[in-house]
Amino acid sequence: MTTPPLLDFSITRESKVSWFDTRQLAATAMKSLAATIVGPMTGRREIMAALAPAVEEIPEYTPDSTGALWLDYIADTGDGWNATHSVMWLAGRDALALSPNGDPTPQPIPSSGFQEGIPSIDGAIPLPHGKVLILGGDQVYPTASAANYKARFSDVMRSARSWQQPARDLFAIPGNHDWYDGLTNFIRLFCQTGDSRRWFGAWRSKQRRSYFTIKLPYNWWLWGLDLALEDDLDPPQLEYFVCQARLLQPGDCVILCVPSPGWLKQDSGNKQFTKLDIILNLITGKDGKSGKSVPVILTGDLHYYARHEAHLANGLRHFIICGGGGAFGLGTTQTPSSVQVNNYDAKPAEAKLRQSFPDKQQSIHARRGVFGFPLVNKAFSALLGGIQMVMFWLFSSPLTPVAADQLCDGDFSANWIARNMYTPFNTDGLWSIFTLAFFHLGSPGILITLAIVLAAFGSFAVSGKQHGGRSSVALAIGCLHGLSQCALGITSVWMVSHVAWMFLGGSVLVKVSILLLSFLQISILGGVLFAVYLFLTHKFLGMHDQEVFSAQGIEQFKSFLRIKIAPEGLSIYPIGLSNPAREWVLAPEVRQTSVTSSITGAVTHQIQAPKGCARIFDPASPLIPHLIEPPIRVEGSVRTKGDRDTA
């Protein structure tokens, strides 16, 4: 037997994104600003449209030998290795076997890197892998750089499923994070043609633009839209879908994939005409009577699973959010139980929440984890301490000299610390310190610094206000939080000063000790206060829904969709994974020649794997997915039924 040749390559395992890391916050903010201002002016989509052939071939798929076509849908990937690789590892297997009643079902780890097959588990239903993988946006976090795409996306895909024959196809739409570089790297990865098409393990990209149309069997279609960072549809994209709409026949059904759930952002009872409505009207007509329908809309962006359904004038429509591909877990405490959606010429319809993962109780429990903020976000907590030390330095510069007879021998200088030593260690002494601080507000340096601090905390609060909330209220709460942080700093220095003086007296070490101990205490307590602020504003005011969970970097509550298209219609299997793997081992035939670590926590493995090996890393123990809810059934088109009845 001929031994397959060995392939040498590297796989980088990135740690999860630290969303409150100070450098990360600055970099993401700058990228977001650049994408918002410069991105729309770069004309990436217009360039792609100009380079497209006059007649574009539409990818078309036919059923397999069983009469069905399987698709996978995954959104919001490319964060940390554990979560993203766990989801991709499940999606990469030949098939999954899951309990139909939703019980968690451990998936066997294949003993060979070359052969897998369909798992045989008593009472479980087999779900074959998708011939096509649809990526629903935000393929990489936190910003769309070439390095991030490789380590947080491409390497993960290659490790999860490195080989398959025939290969699987891949289509992707960009989310806002993919747009942070003006879509440059997204186009390089997903929109090449011919032999330049990129491989991601066993998946190969098949699209020419950042949006696409796929023709599916039994009169089903799938449209992927690029709606990120634009107030209006770009003309080439609109023209493209106008042409695609002309190909639809009465009885055809379209699955729409969009980058964000716009239906959650519409004001109740206020009928707004959106970009999504423009596309919907191309398919169904403005009155919904074209005979073509959009029974399913898929999206990510929010990192959980939630399904709303609405009875519209032309039938039932499912609104499915499935953003559990690997990014930090987001709770569903603020997912509305019902939303108003446009219903053609009729009054808005009510879309009711049917299922969510995590559920409300799991989300409430997860929210409490924010109290570990200073342990998870050490750099940000240290930043809070550093800001307070700057304030302390300004306070320590007196407005007027202090008379020598007011100080004892051995005191340091006429400064705020020296005065601090002689205030009583009680509430009156603490009040006197705040009084002293108040009189220092006449200093321009303190006023400017305080204004910057309050503006920063106020802006943060406004950015995290609940949809529809009042900016003025959020601004006031943010400024109050900023003042609380300043008060905490003053109190901390006062307490540390007294304790240090009791133990060290007039020693030359006392001043250094006060500085170091104050910084340490303020950093810890400032982080705790920040956590309390996030928790209370989220619980009682609905603010900071993203931040209260992103601050924890929650790896739990992952999800993706496995979709079956058959003559009788569409079946959507929502697959949940409560806990990703945290320990990984090399697949049986794979060897590691070297491993290096970086200061950021990334680990790069130099790998040797035989050609044809399907996996690089396996979980150390079986992953245990489950069905989030019973399969969602959508009947086939009328034309499909008629053809079947005639046959």
Notes on the structure:
With 647 residues, this protein is an alpha+beta fold. It has two domains: 6-367 and 552-646, Metallo-dependent phosphatases (Purple Acid Phosphatase, chain A, domain 2), CATH 3.60.21; 378-550, no CATH class. Helix content is 35%, strand content 21%. The strands form five sheets. Strands 2, 5, 6, 7, 8, 17, 18, 23 and 24 form a nine-stranded mixed beta sheet that branches. The chain has an eight-stranded mixed beta sheet with strand order 9-10-11-12-14-13-16-15, with helices on one face. α3 crosses α4. The longest helix is centred in the C-terminal third of the chain and has 34 residues, at 471-504.
Which terms summarize this structure?
single chain, 647 residues, alpha+beta, Purple Acid Phosphatase, chain A, domain 2, 2 domains, 9-stranded mixed sheet, 8-stranded mixed sheet, 24 strands, globular, disordered C terminus
Write the SSE topology.
Layout: E1 6-13, H1 22-37, H2 44-51, E2 69-74, H3 81-92, E3 95-98, E4 125-128, E5 132-135, H4 146-160, E6 168-172, H5 184-190, E7 199-200, E8 203-205, E9 212-216, E10 220-224, H6 235-246, E11 253-258, H7 275-284, E12 293-299, E13 305-312, E14 315-322, E15 338-343, E16 346-357, H8 360-367, H9 373-376, H10 378-395, H11 416-421, H12 427-439, H13 444-463, H14 471-504, H15 509-541, H16 547-550, E17 558-566, E18 569-577, E19 584-586, E20 591-597, E21 603-610, E22 617-619, E23 625-627, E24 632-635, H17 638-646
Parallel strand pairs: 2-5, 5-6, 6-8, 10-11, 11-12, 12-14
Antiparallel strand pairs: 1-21, 2-17, 3-4, 7-8, 9-10, 13-14, 13-16, 15-16, 17-18, 18-23, 18-24, 19-22, 20-21
Helix pairs in contact: 3-4, 10-13, 10-14, 10-15, 12-14, 13-14, 14-15
